Amino acid sequence: MTQNRIIKICIVEDDALILKSLQMVLNQAEGYAVTGTFFSAEAALENLKEHHPDVLLLDIDLPGISGIEAIPRLKKLQPELNIVMLTVHDESELVFAALRKGAVGYLVKGSTSKYLLQGISEVIEGGAPMSPSIARAVIASFAPKTETVLTDREVEVLEKLSNGTNNKQIAEDLFVSTNTIKAHIKNIYKKLHVHSRAEAVTKAIKKGLI
Length: 210
What we know:
This protein is an alpha/beta fold. It contains ten helices and five strands.
């Protein structure tokens, strides 16, 4: 710890045992204090302003709104909030989805107490803590692409698909017809050997195409 002030932390976690364990670790550590806990994203959204934490530890799998869906809503309430995902998931597509939404760190549950505390401190100092397995996935995404199976326009279409944009809106954004977009999507499926949008997006992310 390089700062003298207390780091205020809120936790969004629906598993009572995990939540209790996190509270114990953080409250027993010098310079850290849990000021609020929530079992759902909805509860956090409703009560966050009362706590105004420095850091929010956010699970992905929550009842109702998922952690990833909640990120932009939480940031809207408190723009300077440092959101760190704390989850069992280390799939690259979920990592990147969380980071795109505004998370500043991504830690896998089961990390040691020391690593958790270091991660929170790192966030306050302007860093972006990530568990080793997550860091490797991020680094791999920037590795030189060994093959380019999609055209620039197909990549553009796929990026829009990854954001949940429908065919009509993509067509309007790219100033082409809906049939043209359908043709692009058909080619994307064929080149990536997939049969759905979700599969196409997942495979493209794993290949580093988007």
